[in-house]
Structures are given as structure tokens and as C-alpha cells.
């Protein structure tokens, strides 16, 4: 009877020690686990944002192909419909437009297709071009 009590007490103490030690081991790596969880959440957010940008680019391209994008559309309307351009820069040379805005397919890489929207002095759409920057 006493041997059983001693055995169970030792077994119980040993079990508590194992649980305590494994808990400490977990706590020592808690920062790394939290960091990896944060990376996973950031990755999901980036993928969602990329999918959104891809959808807006495809909408712009479809509207150009189907002639739904009309000249003299205001810049703010374009931004509302298709999102911010990757880059807007002043037009070079003696062009009839003052600014060019570049829309790039987010998953197209460096040499993918780009859409160039040219705006006049009143920030209205003057013309557009679809270019393959790989050529």
C-alpha cells in the first residue's frame, strides 16, 4: 500500500515535471510562433490586395477592349473605377496631353503588358495605349 502511494506520488510528480518543462520549452519559442503567425496573416493580406489589383487591371483592359472607356473621362473617375496608377508623370515633348499614367498588371513582372493613359490639361482622358514592355 505504501509502495503504491510512493509510486503514484513519484509518477504524478514526474508527470508534472514533464508538463512544466514542455510548457517552458513552448514559452521560449512563443516569440517565434507569434512572428510566424504574423507573417502568415501578412501573406494572406498581400495575396488579397494582389487579387484586388489584378481584378482592377483586368477591368480596365476589358473596358478599353470593349470601348467602354471614353475620352474626356475625369482622372478622379478613372482612379475610382480602376484604382491608383503605378506611376503618373508629366508628358515629355510637345504632346497634346500634360500627364501620362501607367497601369501595370501586378503579376505581369517587369516586362509585362502596361496600359498608358494620357491626360489633358483639365485632367481628362485624352488617349490610351496598350504596350508590351517586353518588346
What would you note in describing this structure?
Helix content is 53%, strand content 19%. With 135 residues, the chain is α+β, with helices and mostly antiparallel strands. The protein has a single domain (2-132), classed as 2-Layer Sandwich (Beta-lactamase Inhibitory Protein, Chain:B, domain 1). A hairpin with a 5-residue loop joins strand 3 and strand 4 (125-132). The longest helix is centred in the middle third of the chain and has 36 residues, at 30-65. The chain starts with a helix and ends with a strand.
Residue stretches low in confidence (pLDDT < 50, at least 5 long) are none
In CATH's first tier, which class applies? Alpha Beta
Under the CATH scheme, the architecture is 2-Layer Sandwich
Supply the number of helical segments.
3
Main sheet attributes: strand count, strand direction, barrel closure: 4 strands, antiparallel
- Count of the separate structural domains: 1
Which H/E pattern describes the elements?
HHHEEEE
Alpha-carbon Rg, integer: 30 Å
Structural class: alpha+beta
Provide the CATH topology: Beta-lactamase Inhibitory Protein, Chain:B, domain 1
Q: Walk across the major sheet and give the strand order.
A: 1-2-3-4
The share of residues in extended strands comes to 15-25%
The geometry reads as rod-shaped
Round the mean pLDDT to the nearest integer and report it: 84
- Helical content stands at 40-55%
